[in-house]
């Protein structure tokens, strides 16, 4: 191809030096004297206009960046609230000229929030669309379209307001807007984000308005192609109310039709409008997002992990500082969780969220995985704008969050003071004098390349506290790195010069400027893939980004040390044509013109079928859904328990109960739901069968099941253990044997104590030819973290049991167990996992006793262990252990140096163990000190002791864990610790053990079950890991990021995670148990979903 026919090359001077990169900041804040930019978004308070009367007054304004006058330099637009917006022309050398006078007629006191850029009339000149809000007068809320008149007769550019002429002078309370071609007809349509507090309290639960009648719903305007837009909201399905603060556009499912993501404040859920390709949208947030930010602010969309699929970051207002957390959050009642379900809201949690796009299987989008806590980006104070941008040109996208709020209405001591005095003892003046201020630096997270980030704001030159709102980025000085610009409240706007290419040895880049089709000259919606050295970067061209802002149309790729791009693939917005460019040298800007470039027909991407899938799901194969009362442990005497014990099940067992050679699948019964048994009709179909004595209602929750021939009569019997937690109903703890008598089953009680059972592990412990049963004890009623003695039932050969008594069975909070001959002496030993403890290995003393093996190697880590599986993973002849733990995607800081500790005193001497977890947090001196995990109101719900001893949230926030405990009774206090939450493989090396963390992708959620097999047939065992957990307290939240992960092993004991889109497994929800059945040369995977339909997969 003749590149000169399609490219216009622009040389960019890059200053490279040998300075040590770590010695100098990436960004340098420029002064007004240096830049000429003197814009201040000043918002003065008075008696009638202040935060007490208008809580939106400090929501701020946006930034727009683009080349307004066509000189090759990006110019700046700042939205003004109480002040006029300002527009600055870039004169080169990072100096700017105020040309606001070019906007003929001025702005006449409108409260302008957002800035969007578009070439509305396709004349080659950038136009500006301002969104307007705040005023009670609709005429003063009309959005404005300033049409660029270009340079007429060689003069300077000027702008004329023409929103009404185009039909887009919308007079709702508009926050922001995005131009995009939602119907792929070639012209750009307009989405307007609205936000107004109606007469309904925005934090109160109520039925959602989803019929298009709400004042606070967004609007979609369709471009008719004749210079006119019409409101198509209702016919397009844009009908759901919200309190919109963030707007992002992306093709999430890669079907070429742009979708819409809306981040909503207050009680309203975020919206994920998936384009239905027929001119309509459907909100599918509940289908693809496990949960969301609670007070969503800005958002950004981009490929954060470079897998070709757009991910989402949403911002909230969770402080990073421990003391601020305890002063601004009073607690998270479980009532929020139940009301979400009652009123059909998706669950929301107060924190930033990073939603990873898992791609699609056979054209169907998979659920996203939320990993913000593991990534380290979940807490950044009161944050507004999120931008994914390669700050340091190292080829991955970093994150910049703008921060700050002049009046912190979330301070709990202030809100109590206000409730007690405002309106009768104190007025606005007195209130305003005591409202705290949130002025903190912006956050700049460096991408570590492994789904983790480190805040480098201080090291990289963003250490100044500020009230920032909208922000954008561009290469303002054309030197190959990106400057950052923020719109600040009551302070000069910030322009940060990026010094990357001045300080670093070598950081290459590539910039692309697109000239699109006639009706879309900015090529909005174009996708670009650049490929080099076996790697790819993706970009999707939408200008509305972050918060109230628009970024430069010039596309920027950081390349690190790569000097040559092998191929650039440009998929034009119609998705019918592509342009391919080969062998491009780095460190330049190229222009690609749709009309003059060589285009070829687009061949559909096959990313979702890049390899043959491992699994094939059989839809609706077994229509079983577990029904179980939502028993709320947090309403029991131990209200501060971090995790519900009651949420287990369904119990599943498999085996040939009928003796016909066809395996059955049994789901355990409960008081609300009879047991069900299913069997095969053919290789892909199942039917429910009824067996006398089993398939009726039961008095207990049969969450633990085992099918074994307990009495050696040649048929399968069933052993059940009651697994629910109900301290006031000991009668539910009925553990049973269903003895198979040919045509019926006879029920017998097992000699097990009245406690919840966590596991039944069967093995011929004493090698006498029959199966014995280990019974794991889960918890002692109302005495967490204490538990009864676990038991070992010794079979007499006829299916009757004696209990082997031993102090060894004081094991604590047992969660799982497996029999394995760890020392290869010919006797199966027992490995047990526990909460708040190490695992324990019990050596089988030749069928006479189980004796604990004490070894630093075994007891090295104490965890929230949930699962153990034994398998010879490395082929050395002994069985290794796979250990499931909580994972690392959570709010706790846990290590051997800084463990998570559970203190359980009866602090107020009322007979109940009060659960007081403590963790280490950094204080102002940089020291890590142990403080309470719980918020004050959460502790106050446990006992009046806490309200009596801590009279304010500020006082409580300063109390160390020791100081809290010292105020009450500590006699006979139970103490447990956790020093790791990672899941591991424990390599067995001749009876000694070596710990190895599972890959990062396996640490996103608790692991509840696993299955080992050589999936890729390379002779090495691989692992399928399943789990998640919805039983934690609201402050911790649900764990849902594991969608069914396959990790492939190799000969070096390494594991590689395979994307869900390449395996075919992508389940949403909690899988507590997995059963695998071989039938007619096929292997079936039965996933027991907690309170969701069972999922059945077949190995392909």
List the helices and strands and how they pair.
Elements: E1 7-11, E2 27-29, H1 32-35, E3 63-66, E4 75-78, E5 86-92, E6 95-98, E7 111-118, E8 127-133, E9 144-151, E10 157-161, H2 163-166, E11 174-180, E12 189-194, E13 219-223, E14 229-231, H3 233-236, E15 244-250, E16 259-264, E17 271-275, E18 281-283, H4 285-288, E19 292-293, E20 299-302, E21 311-314, H5 322-328, H6 334-342, E22 348-349, E23 353-356, E24 360-361, E25 364-365, E26 369-370, H7 372-375, E27 383-389, E28 398-403, H8 412-421, H9 428-434, E29 440-441, E30 443-447, E31 453-455, E32 465-466, E33 468-474, E34 483-488, E35 494-498, H10 500-503, E36 508-515, E37 527-532, E38 535-540, E39 544-545, E40 549-550, E41 555-560, E42 564-571, E43 577-585, E44 588-593, E45 600-601, E46 615-617, E47 652-655, E48 664-667, E49 676-682, E50 685-689, E51 702-708, E52 717-722, E53 736-740, E54 745-749, E55 757-763, E56 772-777, E57 791-795, E58 801-804, E59 814-820, E60 829-838, E61 840-844, E62 850-852, E63 862-864, E64 867-871, E65 880-884, E66 900-904, E67 916-922, E68 928-932, H11 936-942, H12 944-949, ...
Parallel strand pairs: 19-22, 36-44
Antiparallel strand pairs: 1-44, 2-35, 3-4, 4-5, 5-6, 7-8, 8-9, 9-10, 11-12, 12-13, 13-14, 15-16, 16-17, 17-18, 20-21, 21-23, 23-26, 24-25, 27-28, 28-30, 29-32, 30-31, 33-34, 34-35, 36-41, 37-38, 37-42, 39-40, 42-43, 43-45, 46-78, 47-48, 48-49, 49-50, 51-52, 52-53, 53-54, 55-56, 56-57, 57-58, ...
